[in-house]
Amino acid sequence: MSNVVILCVDDEHIILMSLREQLNRNFGDRYRYEVAESVAEAWEVIEELSMDGSRVLIIVSDWLMPEVRGDEFLVQVHKRFPGIVNIMLTGHADEVAIERARQHGNLYACLSKPWSEEHLIGTIRAGLENEAG
Predict the structure, then answer these.
(1) Is 80 exceeded by the pLDDT of residue 133?
(2) What's the whole-number average pLDDT of the chain?
(3) What is the CATH class of 4-132?
């Protein structure tokens, strides 16, 4: 199993399953695909991955989630793990939140829901190249 990870965070299970399926279809077993239905669960996943020697390369996070908004989460992630490429996927984010995530959370891209698989995969590929470079 790969020790490099793409983590998807969204409070809608169907969205997470769709993201995982699209990632698997396009990247196969090159990466491990983890999902979390809340920011709290995402932190648990990140901690577990860190302890087992895995490395999160990219986080694809929804913005509008209960308790903690995606921009706040990505700012926190960037403070602890500045090398992770952050992508926000949302149908509701306001420009202030997006700009905050860009300024303080190393936001690589913001994609709108519904997304196209081609645009999502292209953005992730570019983010991975950016991370490697």
Answers:
(1) no
(2) 94
(3) alpha beta
pLDDT tens-digit series, residues 86-95: 999 988 878 8
Tokens 């996927």 appear where? 89
Question: Are 35 and 19 within 8 A, CB to CB?
Answer: yes
Instruction: Please give the DSSP secondary-structure letter assigned to residue 115.
Output: P
**Banded model confidence at residue 99, pLDDT cuts 50, 70, 90:** very high
Q: What angle do CA 27, 72, 118 make, to 5 degrees?
A: 25
Which parts of 63-95 are beta strand (E)? 85-90
Extents of the domains making up the chain: 4-132
Q: Cβ atoms within 10 A of the Cβ of 123, count?
A: 20
- Give the helix/strand (H/E) hosting 56: strand 55-62
Provide DSSP, 6-52.
EEEE-S-HHHHHHHHHHHHHHHGGGSEEEEESSHHHHHHHHHHHHHT
> What b/e string do you get for 57-95 counting C-beta neighbours within 10 Å, with b at 16 or more?
bbbbbbbebeebbbbbbbbbbbeeeeebbbbbbbeebee
pTM equals 0.95
Q: Is 129 helix (H, G, I), strand (E, B) or coil?
A: helix
